[in-house]
Amino acid sequence: MSAKMSQRRRQLDNKRSSAINNEQTNGNSAIIAAAAAARRRNQHRHFPTSNRSRFEYILKNLTKKKFPITIPSYLITIITGLIMSFVLYRVVVTIINYRSQYEYTNIPIKLPKLIDVNDTAPKSSPERFWGTYRSNLYFGLKHRSARSLSGGLMWFDYSKLQQTPDRFLRHWCDQNDRLKYGWNYHDGETFGVEQINDDNLQLNVQWLKQISGEHGGDWTTRISVTPQSLNRTEPISLFFYFHHDLPWIDEISSISTQSLDLLTVRGQTNELEGFTIKIKLNTNTNQLIARTLTDVFQLERIHENLLAKLVTNSNEQTHVLLAEQPFKDFEHNTFFIQLTLKQPLANEMFSFDIIYQSDSSNNEREQDLTGFYFNEEITRLQKQFDERFENIFQLKTKQNMDAKKIQFAKSTLSNLIGGVSYFTGKSLVAKANQKVPDEYWTASLYTAVPSRSFFPRGFLWDEGFHNLLIARWNKNITVEIISHWLDLLNDNGWIPREVILGNEARARVPAEFVVQYTSNANPPTFFLTIEYLLKTNPNNHLFTLPFTQRLEKWYQWYNRTQYGSLPLSYRWRGRNASSIYELNPKTLTSGLDDYPRASHPTDAERHLDLRCWMTLASTVIGKLYSLINNEETNRYLNYAQLLSNNDELDQLHWSEQYGMYADYGLHTDHVQLQRVPMGKPNPQQPQQPTHMVRQVTRQADLTIKYVKHFGYVSLFPLMTRVLNPQSLKLEKTLNDLQNPNLLWTQYGLRSLAQSSSLYGVRNTEHDPPYWRGAIWINMNYMILSSLQHYAKIPGPYSEKARQIYGQLRTNLITNMFRVYEKTGHVWEQYDDKTGNGQGSYPFTGWSSLIVLIMSELYDE
C-alpha cells in the first residue's frame, strides 16, 4: 500500500514540475521575472531586511548556533571576544577621562591629621611657639599661628642712600645686597646669635626666649650696630616694627629722652591676649633721633609702605625720618620705631633691646630679660650649645679638625636650624593643561628652607636632606616638620613640590613657579630621614598607624602615576616633548632639572634614579608595617626585594655597550641649538630678530637606546645600596668614580662626566648649565654614605670603597671650608674646575650636610 502511494506522489510531482517548465517557456517575460523574484524571496524568506531585525536575527542564530553562512565556532569565539574587549576598553577609557575631568586637586585626604590645630599652640608646644620663623628677612620673628604678630628689622646708612637711592633699605635677604650674614648660634627653640656685615656696618642680633605663662612666654631681641670705617660721620637709621593682620595696639607711651627706657607699647590679640613691648637703650648717647609710626600696612608690602612714609627734616643736617601722624587705636595694625644716629663714631657700638612680655607670665617673671641678666643667659646658652654640639658630632675626635673648622660646622648647623620657618596660606595647584589654577585648602607648614635669600619657601625633596641633619640635633623638630608636610596630602596622595603659603612668601617667587601641577612628582627624600629614624629610634612616637597610612598613600601615588612602560620601570612625568628651545628637555620633577635624559621624551622612557628612589621607599614602608604589625615580611618588603634584584635592574638599566647604568629612551647625542629668524622674512626689517632652536643633526641616530651620559643618575644603584657587594658592576662603578676624565675632581664629584656631550653646555640660550658639571653636596653626601657602607661590608671591593671614601671626604671638607673662609658663605653648588662657590648663597639647605660629612654620621 505504501509503495503505491509513493509511486503516485512521484507521478504528481513530475506533472507539477512539467507544468512549471511549460509555464516558463510559454509565458511572457514579465510573468517569468515575477516568478523568479518570488522564488528568490521564498528562498530567503527567514532573513530580515531592516538593520535592527538583521542584528536580532544574527544574534538569535548565534545563540542557537545557527547562521545562514557557515562560520567555524572558534572564529565566532574570537570575534565575540574582540567585540567584548573593545567595549571594555571604551568603558575604561571613558571612566579614566571622566575621572580626570572631574578629579579634584584641592580636597584633603580622608585620614587623621598628624598635626592638630592646637599642637602648635603655646600651651601644647611653648618651646617652639615663638621663633625666628620669618627667615626671608635678615632678622624676623613670628609665632606659629595662622594670624601671627610679626616683627622685623630694617636699616640703612646714608652713604647707601646716596649711592643707590632705590636699594638703600635693608630688610628682605637679597643676594644683590652683597652682605655677609648668618647665624653663629641657633638651637631652634631658645636662642640665636646672628652676625651681619654690611660694608662699613657690623650688626649683631641676639635673640633669647624664656618659657612661662600660657601664651608662649617672654623674649628679648638685642640689636647692636658698630660702624667700621675711620672717622665715621654718616648717619645710620635702624627700624624695628610689629605687624598683625588686625588692629592690636592699645596704648603707646611718649618717647622718653631722659631715660634708657625709651618707649612702651601695650597691645593684645586673640591668641596672645595682653602683652607689653618695651624699647630700651643700652647705650647713652646724645646723637639719637627717635621716631615712631603707626599705620595700616600689608606685611608683604611693608617695605614699600615704609618708604612712602619717610620724609626729610629741615635741620642744618638733613635726615630721613618717619613722618609724624596721629595714632588710631581701632584701625592701625603696624607699629614702627626708628632710631637714627646722627654722627656715629667708628668702632663705637650702639645697642638697644626690644623686650616682649606676656601678661600671663607676670606672676612668674622675676626680672626683665635685659641688661646683665640677658648677657648671662646668652653666655650660658652658648656654652650649652657648644657642649651639646660636641656630644652629638664629636668633631674634636676627628683628624685635622681645628677650632675654625669646628666653628664653621656650628655656624652651618645654626643657619640650617635658623632657617626653619612657619607659613600659612593657600597654594595654587592645577591639573595638566588646566588654565585657571585651584586654591588648596588653608594650611600651615613648619619647614626649613634651602636659601633665605633665594629660596625662602618649602621644597619637598630638599626637606628630606635637611632633616638628615636636623634629626641629629633635635628629633622633635624633625617629627613636626615631616608631620606638617604629610598633612599636605590631597585626596589622590599628592604633595606639592614647592609650597608657597601666604602673600609674603608668594611675593618672593617668580610667577611661572607659583602654580604646582598635580601630575608632577619630586624625589621622595623623606624616606631617607624616616629610614634614619627607624634605625636609631624605632619606638619614636612618629611611627603610628595614621602616620604610616599617610606615608603609604604618598608612596602609592608614585606607583600609580610615575610607572613606566614595562614592569618594574618608572618614568618622571612633566617633561615637555614638544619643546624646541631646549637642547635636552628638563626633568624638573626629578630635582636634577637639566641633567641629560633621553633627548626626545616619550612614554617608553625608563628613569634609573626614580626606580632607585622607589626601591628605598618600598623598603621603608615595609619596615614600618613590620614594626606596627609585628611581622617579618609583607607585600612592600617583597616588592622592595624584587626591585633590589640586580638581574632585574640590569635588564632595564645596564648598558653593556657603555659599561654603565643609564636611563633608556628615544635619544640622540647629535643635537644642537641653532640661531634662526623669528617668523617670516620681512624685507622692511633688515635686522630681523632671531632665537635659538634645537636641531637634530643626524636623524638616523635618533633611536630607542640607553642614554650615554655618565653622572649622578648613573650612580643611583650605588647611592641607594642596591648593588650587590660582590657585583662586578660595583667594581666598574668604583673605578669610574676615580677617573678624573669622568666625575673625580680635587673638590668633590662633579654631576656630569667631562666626556658627556652636554658637559658644561647651556640648555637654552638663556639657561646656563645647572646639573651639568657642578659639584652638589647632597649627592656627594649620598655617595659617601654608600661608600662607607660598602667599605664596612666584607667583599672584594671593600678596600677600594674605603680608599675612595677617605679621599673624597677630605676633598669636600677642604674645599668647602676654604670657600667659606674666603666668602663667608656656604653655597648652592661648587665649580668643578676651581672649587669656588656658585649659584645662590647663603645656601645652608642640603649643603649643610657637610656637617655630617665632617662628623662621619651617615646611618647611625
From TrEMBL:
A GO molecular-function annotation: Glc3Man9GlcNAc2 oligosaccharide glucosidase activity
EC number(s) reported in the record: 3.2.1.106
Record-annotated Glycosyl hydrolase family 63 C-terminal domain positions: 371-856
InterPro entries: 6-hairpin_glycosidase_sf, 6hp_glycosidase-like_sf, Glyco_hydro_63_C, Glyco_hydro_63N, Glyco_hydro_63N_sf, Glycoside_hydrolase_63
Gene3D superfamilies xref list: 1.50.10.10, Glycosyl hydrolase family 63, N-terminal domain
Catalytic activity: N(4)-(alpha-D-Glc-(1->2)-alpha-D-Glc-(1->3)-alpha-D-Glc-(1->3)-alpha-D-Man-(1->2)-alpha-D-Man-(1->2)-alpha-D-Man-(1->3)-[alpha-D-Man-(1->2)-alpha-D-Man-(1->3)-[alpha-D-Man-(1->2)-alpha-D-Man-(1->6)]-alpha-D-Man-(1->6)]-beta-D-Man-(1->4)-beta-D-GlcNAc-(1->4)-beta-D-GlcNAc)-L-asparaginyl-[protein] + H2O = N(4)-(alpha-D-Glc-(1->3)-alpha-D-Glc-(1->3)-alpha-D-Man-(1->2)-alpha-D-Man-(1->2)-alpha-D-Man-(1->3)-[alpha-D-Man-(1->2)-alpha-D-Man-(1->3)-[alpha-D-Man-(1->2)-alpha-D-Man-(1->6)]-alpha-D-Man-(1->6)]-beta-D-Man-(1->4)-beta-D-GlcNAc-(1->4)-beta-D-GlcNAc)-L-asparaginyl-[protein] + beta-D-glucose
Sequence intervals crossing the membrane: 74-98
Residue ranges occupied by any Glycosyl hydrolase family 63 N-terminal domain in the UniProt entry: 129-289
Protein name according to UniProt: Mannosyl-oligosaccharide glucosidase
